[in-house]
Specification:
Elements (H helix, E strand, L loop, with lengths): L14 H13 L4 H15 L11
Helix pairs in contact: 1-2
């Protein structure tokens, strides 16, 4: 069940990519979902795209 204020959508991933994200998430003590969100934010930041979080930070 999605967290309040979070957009939910289906995401199809190559199984090998999912496994790699799952391993990384485990190392970082995050869920796969949280790891994907973290990686997306880092990629956007690297591209110079500013994203406010749900608290407006």
């Amino acid at each position: 069940m999605p967290s309040p204020g979070k957009k939910s959508f289906a995401l199809r991933l190559d199984p090998a990519l999912h496994a790699a994200i799952e391993r990384l998430a485990s190392q970082e003590l995050r869920s796969v979902n949280a790891e994907i969100e973290f990686l997306l934010r880092e990629a956007l930041k690297k591209q110079g795209v500013k994203v406010k979080d749900s608290e407006g930070k």
